[in-house]
Design a protein that fits this description.
Keywords: Membrane, Transmembrane, Transmembrane helix. This protein is of the alpha+beta class. The chain is built from six helices and five strands. Helices cover 51% and strands 19% of the residues. α1 packs across α2.
């Protein structure tokens, strides 16, 4: 999922969760006779549905629906606020004397900085995220269209080997993207 699509997905889910939260709170407030909720009920002219008010289970169903909507709304909001980024990971080479922790985000940033020094590489960025329950190093390199792709892939492989020696026993997947800039019209 692209970053912009993930943002839209989270935004829609957040709005839906907030709407469910507000709706649930509104129904609970109506059930307990809260003045502001009753004023809003009068403003929305909910009393034009007289058949619903004759139903003996209306207060209980409003309360149950309100609680359910509130819980679902809170769950949607909390589920979308989770961080995907990973900064530190524990090594399996621990002992009773202590735990070895490696800041994999800093190691990934060092990889990106090293790749940015290559000729015709405009930008390189790296992050370590949890993607579908798998911790993954995501490295993106943006370069000119005239870059030597074979030497760039070789440099990425060297950085991968250095990264693996730094985090050798950690279960961490890798994902590399090479973005080439647009070719100028008169260049061909």
């Amino acid at each position: 999922m692209t970053r912009s699509l993930a943002f839209v997905d989270r935004l829609i889910t957040l709005i839906f969760g907030l709407a469910l939260l507000a709706l649930g709170t509104f129904f609970i407030a109506i059930n307990f006779g809260e003045r502001h909720a009753l004023d809003a009920q009068d403003w929305m002219k909910l009393d034009t549905w007289p058949a619903a008010y004759d139903w003996e289970y209306l207060p209980a169903s409003l309360l149950a629906g309100g609680i359910l909507a509130t819980l679902i709304g809170l769950w949607l909001i909390v589920a979308n606020l989770k961080r995907r980024r990973v900064a530190r990971m524990n090594s399996s080479n621990n002992s009773p004397l202590g735990t070895i922790t490696v800041n994999v985000a800093n190691v990934a940033d060092a990889m990106a900085e090293s790749l940015e020094q290559l000729p015709k590489v405009n930008r390189a960025s790296a992050k370590v995220v949890t993607d579908r329950k798998v911790k993954t190093l995501e490295l993106t390199v943006t370069a000119d269209p005239t870059v030597d792709v074979i030497s760039l892939k070789r440099a990425i492989a060297q950085q991968e080997a250095a990264f693996r020696s730094a985090v050798r026993d950690m279960n961490l997947a890798s994902s590399y993207r090479i973005h080439l800039g647009p070719v100028e019209r008169g260049a061909l």
